[in-house]
Amino acid sequence: MNCYMVSLGCAKNKVDSEMILGLVKKKMNIVSDINEADLVICNTCAFIESARKEAIDTIFSLKENMQPNAKLVVCGCLAQRYKDEISKLMPEVDRFIAIEEYKDLAKILNDVCNSKYDYDTEINSLDRVYSTPNYMRYVKISEGCLNRCAFCAIPLIRGNLQSRTIEDITEEVKKEVLEGAYEINLISQDTTKYGYDIYRKLKIVDLLKSLCQIPGDFKIRLLYLYPDIVTDELINFMAKEPKIMHYFDIPIQHSEDKILKKMLRRGSREYMLEMFKKIRTLMPDAILRTTMIVGFPYEEEEDFSNMVKFIEDVKFDRLGAFTFSLEEGTPATKYPNTIKENVKQRRYEELMDHQMKVSEALNKEKEGMILDDCFIIGYDEESYMYLARNYMFAPDDIDGVIYVASRRELELGERIKVKVLDSDAYTLTGEEVL
Ligand code: SF4
Fold it and tell me: Which percentage of the chain shows pLDDT scores above 90?
């Protein structure tokens, strides 16, 4: 039997897909042509309207293109969030598998497509079919979230925090480094809260200490840090430990205390200004990334202009933004959603314009620098240049890339030194230093 899979949504969903295929491959071949598939799996995202639309469009397009007698299975956040009503709404799908059912995946696949998996076979993080290039890996250190931000549906889908043990994560990273991984991206909903559920205290630094003892030449990147628990202990450890990238992905969502309160988020403008200053002082080469929401209920023009002032004061290297969209079942449904879409859009564009100028200026300062930890991620036919990243650029479509000219042929994952010659808001351009 052959299986074809599509994975939508975030890097955490990608890891789930890799684990699901780790089980599937025990009895089926994984194929990249849907016409050869007896089983088609779509792993979905559902945290905002546009993600749900993409999931439903993808499901119908798979149904259209797959073999008529093949089975279609849909899993992930759409299946979890709407598990009660969705199968009635989409009879085209042979089986919706909610995230809470992943432990029974072997039995479910046997029921759906008459395969012969041992019932006690379970998905696990050490047995994945990786979808990322060998030099980089996503490592999901926990699932779910203990926070209840007023706009966010993720706790409704993924539940409360469920951390893996330090031993389990260390064993996975050890294996991946042995297999050649250089960039280890730690992901979760709230990486700073790691371990609080199983160890009754914040354990992210202890986890990092364990990972940094793994022999080998690799680097660790932390994604999804919650501002008010980016502790001095964590900042100091990241500053002194060479294996940890000086990359701070801290989605703050807003800068104004009044709005943070309405968002049911902890922290304050003053605290965050102080935290970013501390990071920049200890690590002048640190990359700061954040995410903002504009147009949240109660956000007045003054709050918005203060937010713009905040991003100009902090000078984030990377900033992504969303216009507020109301999610059913979230606390924000109690708020008056009175800010007009055109106002939200205008604020979004204005914020991104300001950020563009900040990023341009910060990248300009990098011209002339020698970046000695770049790795090749691809080749751009148009510019005849290689594409590379280093600690400054996370592996997703928010962060840009480095364009590199080289007189020799370079391999994917190859590590090189680059002299930066030019820049714009999102990318750096340079030449290989031999
Ligand atoms: S920290 Fe807030 S925004 Fe992030 S997943 Fe948790 S509830 Fe959602």
Answer: 96
